[in-house]
Amino acid sequence: MEHYKKMQCWVILKKMIEGRDGWALKHPLDLKVLEGLSKSNCLENKYELKANMGLKDIEAKLGFYSTPDEFADDVRLVFSHGLLYTWKDDVHKAAKRLSDTFENRWKSLKEEWTLEERRVKKINKRKRESLCPKPDRGQDQTLSKLLKEKATCWLLSKKGA
């Protein structure tokens, strides 16, 4: 994962941990309680319950994610554990608020990253075009000269990419 994306993920995570609702999901929830809640909610997803973690655990793992989506999946997993509590419970309410906030921020971050990637691609395209001048149509050029210019241009674009 690129460093700037990792830092933006860390900022989101830190705000959740230190925010007013961070207390509920900062540390892993009690596995015995979660198992009881999953049975009462007729959930049969034991795999997710075994991967019990809190927001602090995700912070510790942040350097090991290869994509931002892996990070988001783990954050959503933590929220899903909190949402197993009854809707009247403070843990459920905190998980719901954190989840809504996270999803809004995540959506805007993904849009920012997409725009940034487009901008970088556009800049790289301009660089390649500036390295490869277009042949002057008014001049009579031989085929070998044109091929030589194209090959040089291609090599320069590969070095710059």
Automatic annotation (TrEMBL):
InterPro entries: Bromodomain-like_sf (IPR036427). Gene3D superfamilies: Bromodomain-like. One of its GO terms (biological process) is regulation of transcription by RNA polymerase II. Keywords: Bromodomain. GO terms for cellular component: chromatin; nucleus. GO terms for molecular function: chromatin binding; histone binding; protein serine/threonine kinase activity. Coiled coil: none annotated. PANTHER family: OSJNBA0053K19.4 PROTEIN (PTHR45926). This is Bromodomain protein, putative. It comes from Medicago truncatula (Barrel medic).
